[in-house]
What we know:
By secondary structure, the protein is of the alpha/beta class. It is 51% helix and 12% strand.
Amino acid sequence: MAIETVAIVGVGLIGASFGLALKKAGFAGAVLGVSSPRALAEALGRGAIDEATGLEEAVARADLVYLARPIRRILETLKVIDPCLRPGSLVTDAGSTKAEIVAQARRSIRRAQFLGGHPMTGKEKRGAGEAEAGLFAGRTYVLTPVDRSELETPAAREFLGWLERIGATPVVLGPEAHDRVVACTSHLPQLVSTALAATLAERLESDEHLRVAGPGLLDMTRLAASPFEIWADILATNATAIGEALGAYIAKLEELRARLSSEAMGEEFEKAAGFARKLRGEQ
């Protein structure tokens, strides 16, 4: 079944950006939107969707159902959409954790295929008004099949083709492996930024002290501006892996505190600098 109609369920930043990206990449079919009235109006105004519909109608018409709601809403949606799905269609999601979502999909989706996904992109600001057609370009897009054969169905292959057309780089991980990795690469950095900003909010006594801050502090606290509403579901659905990552980070901080006056601190700086260069493709 060719993908001729796409239903984007949740037309906030990611959902609306996906619609814009598809259109920019040459998708000529219909893009339906399901969301709040305000979000739908904004997405229509931006040209991210062609039509606003209810959930049942959108799912019944779609060859590709793209779930871009918060994680708990994705889980709730998966429980109710199966009776409306077109046989042969593909359901995917953009949730930031995968194990619970994939498990729920395996319990609930029978009439169509489900393929979990996580675009490694975003902004601190939310909503269709912040959407960009280029949001996925040059960014990793993780796919989380339980079995790699799930990537070989006609619907999955066509979806992969559209991911490549919008400039994303697909990476395949199992759901549990994904959650362990992003606990380190995404969730831990958020909590580090949050903890740093919260600590300084308690320790810096006046606005005048903020003038002493340099660009490094601005970089380190950028993620702290992210709203808790986005992170509540992430923390709740990946608590074990995040707890392990936090434990390792706290242990490293304790090591650094013990080495403040030691030459061994230089080894930590060298190790950290090497990783930073590798992350930036400089070695």
